[in-house]
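Fold tokens
===========
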Amino acid sequence: MAVNLPVQIDRASPVPLYHQLAEQLSAAIDTGTLRPGDPFENEVALAERLGLSRPTVRRAIGELVTQGLLVRRRGVGTTVAKQMVHRRAELTSLYEDLAREGRHPRTEVLSLDTDAQDERAATMLGLPPHTPLVAMVRVRYAGDTPLAVLRNWLPPQFADLTREQLQGDGLYALLRGRGVRPAVARQTIGARNARGEDRRLLRLTKAEPLLTMTRSAYDAAGEAVEFGDHCYRAEHYALDVTVHER
């Protein structure tokens, strides 16, 4: 029998209703409230119970199907997927990923500049080239092991961020605490050999590879809220993506 999950929908929030629903359903799977193989409440019943339209509920469920968390089967209905990916292609920070896995994240802030000018970052944020940006360089650790060098740029409204805040929490959590919620991102993933400062900070040899990622994140209104240029120790980081036949 399907579980009727408690769901809170904030209609005054700028976050789309389908996304609010999808996040809460995903959290129920992550925490084990819904377990692999469990039947899932059907679309019509869920829409009626929450006072949402069927297209809204259908889109939320579709998001979870796309992520590999739910499976639709004709004659059976929707169930929680039996195999879970370890790190989904979702919009979270590395800090949140590590904390969720119980790997004790720690951050060293190498620099924080609230009056930085970077034409590339400004363009990615949709701002004029000489806009003063908030720029930071951090090293993210799991315990005592350095995993990533994180270079990020933010719009000038975040100039009140402090080193202490960046050391104590993930960047996306800090943005959400200021009422800004990254909802979607475009990212490019690549690889290269370790070199220069990145090699030294991550304690790598010249022959060891780095995983690289650039990412532009946007809120629900489509406004750019963050641009990042990151590199990771390749042997400690993997991205699992579930692929579906169209």
Observations:
- The longest strand covers residues 105-116.
- The beta strands are 70-73, 77-80, 105-116, 133-142, 145-154, 184-193, 209-218, 224-233.
